[in-house]
Amino acid sequence: MFISQIILILDSNAENSTYAKDFFKANALIKALTADTLESGYKIIEEYEPDLIILHDNFKEDVADICSKLRGKTSFYRPVIMILSSSEDMQKKFNILRVGADDFQDESIDKNELSLRIFAHLRRHIDELTDHVTKLPYVSLTYRILKRNIKLKIEETYALMYLDIDNFEPYKEIYGHIAAEKLLQSFIAIMRTSIDERDFLG
Fold first, then answer.
1. 54, 10 in Cβ contact below 8 A?
2. 103 by DSSP, 3-state: which?
3. What pTM was estimated for this model as a whole?
């Protein structure tokens, strides 16, 4: 089973992060990774390129500064960043959102509501990185998913296939854009019938 999405939870109090296991235990496509130090979190970002980062406002460093650093370290791709904080300071919230956070919630938020927000962010994130014609992940996301699965399943065997359509561009020039899209969609439909739930198509 390919892990298609990864969530990183940055929380200096590691025990607080157990809620992630409850959220995703029924969804084998999502994996939550936790880090209780910024250094270990930055390493996870480098290795796995998580789709969503939940940053708890309980580190010694200012959360806005951490958020800014996260954006700097993920400049080659753009994960969703969600902040959980007990602060009610509106100026602080404004600064955090200004430096790159996508969502700011009170840390006492109901866990069911939090899970719904997380899944909504993940769904929108995938939608933005999906080709509207083929309904498959773009190349950038496909490479990211391959990279993380190779790291996560280093002991398992796997096969990687690269398939291409010969003379697709000449076909498109002769028969037009709509016919080329139909050809692609038929090609993808055939491939979908040839794989099972353990496989990934991108």
1. yes
2. strand
3. 0.84
